[in-house]
Amino acid sequence: MTQIIINLNNKEEETFVETFLKRMKISFEKNEDGFALTDEMKRVIDERLAEDESTYVDAEESLKKISEKYGI
User: Fold this and answer.
1) I want to staple 13 with a disulfide (CB 3.0 to 4.6 A). Which of 5, 8, 29, 69 is the partner?
2) Residue 28 neighbours by CB distance under 10 Å
3) Are 65 and 59 within 8 A, CB to CB?
4) CA 8 from centroid of its chain's CA atoms
5) Reduced to 3 DSSP states, what percent helix, strand and coil does the chain have, rounded to the nearest 5?
6) Quick one: pLDDT at residue 21?
7) 3 state DSSP class of 30
8) What are phi and psi of 18, to 5 degrees?
């Protein structure tokens, strides 16, 4: 078996390549181990870590609020 590694720049490229490979009936595996936090993600996390712990909202409550606000 031959292995080819493709580095994609964005979700649009990923979708294109996946669609192409599926239509060509070429099997493939995705390796998403290369995940890294963006600077924006790090900034938001740092802001949250600096907040007063008495205002803490757990994940379940956060998701409930997001769902109510945005209908997801």
Assistant:
1) 8
2) 10
3) no
4) 14
5) 55, 0, 45
6) 94
7) coil
8) -60, -45
Encoded tokens for 8: 């994609």
pLDDT per residue as tens digits for the range 21-61:
999 999 988 887 767 888 999 999 999 889 888 888 888 99
Per the CB < 8 A criterion, the answer to whether 17 and 6 are in contact is yes
Instruction: Kindly report the number of other CB atoms within 10 A of residue 14's CB atom.
Output: 14
Tokens of 68: 């109510």
Identify the helix (H) or strand (E) that includes residue 17: helix 11-23
pLDDT of residue 25: 94
- CB of 8 within 8 A of CB of 17? yes
Q: What token pair was written down for 64?
A: 């409930």
- Token digits of residue 3: 């292995």
